[in-house]
Amino acid sequence: MESGKFQNFQFHWDQSKIHDRTRFSKEEQSGLVLSNENKTVKRKERFQGDDYPSIRILGDKSIESAIGNDKTNFHIEWKIKINQSHGFIEIGIMNPAQQHTFLLKSFKDEVQIEKEGNLETIKFGETFTVNDVITVRIEGNQDGSTMTLHYLKNDVYVGAPFKDIPIASFYPMVGLNDNDDEITLN
User: Fold this and answer.
1) Which of 9, 20, 116, 155 lies 20 to 30 Å from 47, alpha-carbon distance?
2) Which domain of life is it from (predicted)?
3) Is residue 1 part of a domain?
């Protein structure tokens, strides 16, 4: 897979786009802390036991905003460095309006599709941990209405577990589960 044709998708994590599904989601204090001009996200437990499920945060720009009018010939990517992990980090894309998520799990060699509360888990890839850099690449398919999601780990191609994803309002997404889990846009 040629890396030269992929453009770096510039975005920041958006404090207003946090999806907190924990039992403490109604608390005033957020379970995520942003720093480094909103490029770094760190998980902070609010109370003992505030660790499941992961809290997800989305980027401030949709993928659609990056691809322009040519939906058949776009190639974008972003990189996420794992600064701290206790084993459960999610990296992918999410459409919050349709409750549709495609993600790679750090602790298992699996990817997951979530759609309106239904889960599908697929064996894929390999685990990742502290100091690994995960690259997410998205390219438009020739039909002009779908896209393919690729993953790389430390610049080594892992594969494309998700093909024919409808081009819709998807955003870059990470999910952090445990206290002090931390990632940075690279």
Assistant:
1) 116
2) Eukaryota
3) no
Question: Domain of 80: which CATH number?
Answer: 2.60.120.920
Q: At 69, which amino acid appears?
A: N
CA distance 76 to 59: 14
Q: How many residues does the chain have?
A: 186
Q: Quick check: is 76 in a domain?
A: yes
- Type of residue at 150: H
Tell me if 80 sits within 8 A of 179, measured CB to CB.
no
pTM of model > 0.70? yes
Residue 111 lies in a domain: yes
Domain span holding position 42: 7-185
Q: Is 2 a domain residue?
A: no
Number of domains present in the structure of the chain: 1
Q: How far apart are CA 121 and CA 58, in angstroms?
A: 21
150-184 per-position pLDDT tens digit: 999 999 999 999 999 999 899 999 999 999 999 99
